[in-house]
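Try this one yourself first.
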């Protein structure tokens, strides 16, 4: 029988334009106590995928000890990256195959940060449908959008 998660980490990230001003957010919940922590941030020029990764990284950084985490995200990029792609990239020296040749990994800096954090915890990935009335995902989306609002309208 699988161990129930100690914490649930809900995440979302996005941009106004891609690339463009972006925001990330997380809700970290401890189901046993009901305690929740929220966090968010933004960047003036970034991509959706970078913001999705930042949300997970910032959420995991809040954990002070090895923890069983259920990661709930609408990002297939993050989910597949953690569960399928990253083990292959690491085995290939942090390279991926493109047309049969080794190629650089996009957002490698963030994937490496996420890998370091993931090694400290036991993470299970659960995909949630984005913009579907999922309370925590909608809250993360709201926080992420608010985080990049301050960058809108600036000359680039």
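Now uncover the answer:
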């Amino acid at each position: 029988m699988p161990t129930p998660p100690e914490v649930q980490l809900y995440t979302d990230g996005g941009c106004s334009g891609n690339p463009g001003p972006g925001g990330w957010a997380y809700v970290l919940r401890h189901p046993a106590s009901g305690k929740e922590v929220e966090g968010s941030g933004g960047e003036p020029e970034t991509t959706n995928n970078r913001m999705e990764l930042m949300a997970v990284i910032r959420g995991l950084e809040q954990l002070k000890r090895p923890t069983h985490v259920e990661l709930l995200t609408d990002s297939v990029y993050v989910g597949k990256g953690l569960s399928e792609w990253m083990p292959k990239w690491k085995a290939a020296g942090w390279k991926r195959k493109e047309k049969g040749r080794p190629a650089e990994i996009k957002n490698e800096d963030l994937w490496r940060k996420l890998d370091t954090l993931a090694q400290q915890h036991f993470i299970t990935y659960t995909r949630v449908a984005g913009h579907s009335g999922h309370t925590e995902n909608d809250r993360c989306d709201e926080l992420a959008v608010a985080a990049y609002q301050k960058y809108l309208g600036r000359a680039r």
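Discussion: The mean pLDDT is 92. Residues 27 and 38 are 5 Å apart (CA to CA).
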